[in-house]
Design a protein that fits this description.
It is a single chain. This protein has 401 residues and is of the alpha/beta class. The chain has a single domain, classed as 3-Layer(aba) Sandwich (Peroxisomal Thiolase, Chain A, domain 1). It contains eleven helices and 16 strands. Strands 1, 2, 5, 6, 7, 9, 10, 11, 12, 15 and 16 form an eleven-stranded mixed sheet that branches. A hairpin with a 2-residue loop joins strand 1 and strand 2. Helix 2 packs parallel to helix 5. The protein is globular and about 60 Å long. The protein starts with 10 loop residues before the first strand and ends in a 5-residue tail after the last strand.
């Protein structure tokens, strides 16, 4: 029998930032959402041609890590460093470390590929059976490369976790951070996710016949698959008393379908379980939710199953997938879309479901097809990964001044 979780004490989101194909930092993303400007472009990344659209972050190739952490250099960690430098995030982290002590700040990051792109490159350039000298750095060929790099770059010395549950990875980081803080193991947490483009992802999803040759069209009747992107998103979580006016993490829910390696449960049981738990921890009903950032990958099955959740909300609740803007950023999607939900709350905007011209009838009453100004008090963000790894987050406004 499913046990309904109790309400949690909200956490303040005292700083956050995101970098994706839409640009660097929150202002670039807000401008793109307001003007329905997407960031998908023709694939110019893969080692051999693949007809598709990608959400590529400009300038990663020219970025450089600081000298003291240069041994972590790889595409994924470069993007992480770019992301950390936006919106005053590094200063906010430094302030939290100074206030609580480095050992009392946790680090919880999600990724599905880590620095596998560098490992691919190393195997392409084997030198008599060995990795080439410039990539003979074991620390970057590990799943925990991202968290280890960010810990060293920021000086965070508290509990450090890497979560890799496919496309729900950097949504689940919020849940793990809440537990660490509630149990007294940390006083604050830097959470987030980073994933970069690589052949393993592009050709892996292509082999599953899930990659669209055109820009993805979430919840459109003619959708044909995903567009893959890359992103870095981060958020700083503290107890609500630290910043009463900051937006809040109100609740989270997690579940596992255990149904199929790459297909969600046809009735969305796991997704609904995660949603119910998130609302229970937030102590609210679905009628309170103003906006839902849908996972919305534009694959036939994902959108069909996720649409089954929408009738649990009133039709006044607006919903959209923003993957038509950024592409599916895999392990970074949860953090990216949490940031978009927070922008919706902070700037009274309903992000549009870009790329949808003929909405699925079962989703149409809720879908926002154009940008709209609307006060958002409560927003939900869904992240559903392969293997039935589901996570739902609930965010809300802070206390009024």
């Amino acid at each position: 029998m499913h046990r309904v979780p109790e309400r949690i004490e909200p956490l303040a989101v005292t700083a956050y930032s995101v970098t994706s194909a839409l640009g660097r930092g929150l202002a670039a993303h807000l401008e793109a959402l307001r003007n329905a400007r997407g960031g998908l472009a023709i694939n110019d990344f893969s080692s051999t041609p693949l007809e598709c659209r990608i959400g590529r972050v400009a300038g990663i190739e020219d970025a450089a890590l600081p000298a003291n952490v240069a041994h972590w250099d790889c595409r994924n960690n470069r993007l992480a460093w770019i992301g950390l430098q936006q919106d005053g995030l590094l200063d906010a982290v430094a302030a939290v470390v100074a206030r609580h002590g480095a050992a009392r700040v946790a680090l919880v990051l999600g990724t599905s590929t880590a620095s596998i792109g560098s490992t691919e490159d190393a195997y392409r350039r084997l030198d008599h059976g060995h990795f080439p000298a410039d990539l003979r750095r074991p620390e970057i060929h590990t799943p925990n490369s991202l968290a280890a790099f960010v810990a060293e770059a920021t000086g965070i010395a508290g509990p450090a976790l890497t979560i890799s549950t496919a496309c729900s990875s950097s949504a689940k980081v919020f849940a793990s951070a809440e537990r660490l803080i509630r149990l007294g193991l940390a006083d604050a947490a830097l959470v987030g996710g980073v994933d970069t483009l690589c052949d393993s992802v592009l050709f892996g999803f292509h082999s599953l016949e899930l990659v669209s040759t055109q820009a993805c069209r979430p919840f459109d009747t003619r959708r044909t698959g995903i567009s893959i992107g890359e992103a870095a998103g981060f958020a700083l979580l503290e107890r609500a008393t630290a910043a009463p006016r900051a937006p809040r993490l109100l609740g989270y829910g997690e579940s596992s379908d255990a149904y199929h390696m790459s297909t969600p449960h046809p009735e969305g049981r796991g997704a609904l379980s995660a949603l119910d738990d998130a609302l229970a921890r937030a102590a609210i009903g679905p009628e309170i939710v103003d906006y839902i950032n849908l996972h919305g990958t534009a694959t036939p099955k994902n959108d069909e199953v996720e649409a089954k959740l929408l009738p649990h909300f009133p039709t006044r609740t607006r919903a959209s997938s923003t993957k038509g803007f950024t592409g599916h950023t895999l392990g970074a999607a949860g953090a990216l879309e949490a940031a978009i939900a927070l922008l919706a709350i902070g700037h009274a905007i309903v992000p549009p479901n870009l790329g949808c011209d003929e909405p699925m009838p079962e989703a149409a009453p809720w879908l926002a097809l154009a940008p709209a100004g609307q006060r958002i008090n409560v927003a939900v963000s869904n992240s559903f990964g392969f293997g039935g790894n589901n996570a739902c987050l609930v965010f809300g406004r802070g206390e009024p001044a």
